[in-house]
Automatic annotation (TrEMBL):
SUPFAM superfamilies: Metallo-hydrolase/oxidoreductase (SSF56281). One of its GO terms (molecular function) is zinc ion binding. InterPro entries: Metallo-B-lactamas, NAPE-PLD, RibonucZ/Hydroxyglut_hydro. Residues 123-319 form the Metallo-beta-lactamase domain. Pfam families: Lactamase_B_2. Transmembrane segments: none annotated. One of its GO terms (cellular component) is cytoplasm. This is L-ascorbate metabolism protein UlaG, beta-lactamase superfamily. The lineage of its organism: Bacteria, Pseudomonadati, Bacteroidota, Cytophagia, Cytophagales.
Length: 372
């Protein structure tokens, strides 16, 4: 009897291992590694060595196995404060309101770090993770806080540019790319990320890979890919295989900064000195913890980063859609508002789906995250 139970358990473990190996190797969600030829080209860069991209300053990401194990129960704890206990007031966007004329610079926030930016008559998507779960499979992550997006992908206008900051699942989503690739003219991505897009069927001539401090011009929109303090990787063994970073976007009248993900560091001041002042800055503020603050800013650092880059107005992002850390879901906005006020820094926290117009009063604020 014991022998049969043992063999049955062994068989189950074997099935799970084989299933896992097949999933990792055959599922398109994991993307594709940069080719050996591309990796050889990366070796000429100052911030690439031993087959990995490096941060500009030392960045410790090693918590150690024992510490990680101690944190696991807390991470998976069923804490009701980590997600809304009421229906969020999502603003629906009518597709007809996005076409027909050249609008003053404005944005629509989808929650987390995803935006539609309308600038000088161009439609630009930033980190358009518009799927339900930020993971390679729905079973491997928590669902979005709200079921319906402000507008579905199919209802969006033709997209001139998509910008990706890095290849993590909560920023680069396979299903979203599949639904967007045929209505998008150009993809601008960090070095190495183009391999994912190519494997997903995006035409090579649409893909533009960028290195830190590299500048480009797409349809009269100035773009610069700037550093962040983070990491990359979509599998178990490919951490640091592609680059990560932030974006400077400049039109005829407005200059915008999109931070992507990352910890606080001197790069913010350097970006501000080179490209600032910024009319509007979207700065990461969520999914942080003291144990990994070097790769995700704390809210107080988010506000300070806004000062460093010389932003006229900041908006906290990377929150209000997914639970990826242990803090309450409103902790990011509550803390960054306090620090921004202390620094006399204008800040806006719009409802998801509302149109953020740069020419309007940027400090209009409604505390929609508080349960009515």
């Amino acid at each position: 009897m014991i022998k049969k139970l043992f063999l049955g358990l062994l068989g189950l473990i074997l099935i799970l291992v084989v299933t896992g190996v097949l999933f990792v190797n055959l599922s398109p969600q994991f993307g594709e590694e940069p080719s050996e030829e591309r990796q050889a080209e990366f070796e000429n860069l100052d911030h690439y060595s031993d087959g990995k991209f490096q941060n500009l300053i030392p960045t410790n990401m090693d918590m150690g196995f024992a510490k990680a194990m101690r944190m696991m129960p807390e991470f998976f704890k069923n804490d009701p404060s980590r997600k809304p206990d009421f229906e969020l007031p999502i603003v629906s966007v009518d597709s007809s309101e996005l076409v027909g004329k050249v609008f003053p610079t404005r944005l629509v926030w989808f929650g987390h770090s995803a935006f539609l930016l309308q600038l000088d008559g161009k439609n630009i998507l930033l980190d358009p993770m518009l799927g339900e779960v930020p993971a390679p499979h729905p079973w491997l992550g928590d669902k979005r806080f709200f079921e319906e997006l402000p507008i579905e992908i199919e209802e969006l206008p033709e997209i001139d540019i998509i910008l990706f900051s890095h290849d993590h699942y909560d920023h680069l989503d396979y299903e979203s790319v599949q639904r967007l690739k045929d209505k998008t003219r150009a993809f601008y991505v960090p070095l190495g990320v183009g391999s994912h897009l190519e494997s997903w069927g995006v035409s090579v001539d649409k893909i533009h890979e960028m290195n830190w401090w590299q500048e480009g011009n797409e349809n009269e929109i100035f773009l610069a890919f700037t550093p962040s303090r983070h990491f990359s990787g979509r599998g178990l063994t490919n951490r640091f295989s592609t680059l990560w970073g932030s974006w400077v976007i400049r039109g005829k009248n407005d200059t915008i900064y999109f931070s992507g993900d990352g910890g606080y560091g001197p790069h913010f001041k350097e970006i501000g000195e080179k490209y600032g002042p910024f009319d509007f800055a979207m700065l990461e503020c969520g999914q942080y913890n003291e144990n990994w603050k070097e790769i995700h800013m704390m809210p107080e650092e988010t506000a300070q980063a806004g000062v460093d880059i010389n932003a006229k107005v900041i908006m906290p992002i990377h929150w209000a859609a997914f639970r990826l850390a242990m803090h309450s879901w409103t902790d990011p906005v509550e803390r960054v508002l306090v620090k921004a006020q202390e620094l006399n820094l204008p800040i806006i926290v719009p409802k998801i789906g509302s149109k953020i117009e740069l020419s309007a009063n940027p400090e209009i604020r409604e505390k929609w995250w508080i349960k009515p």
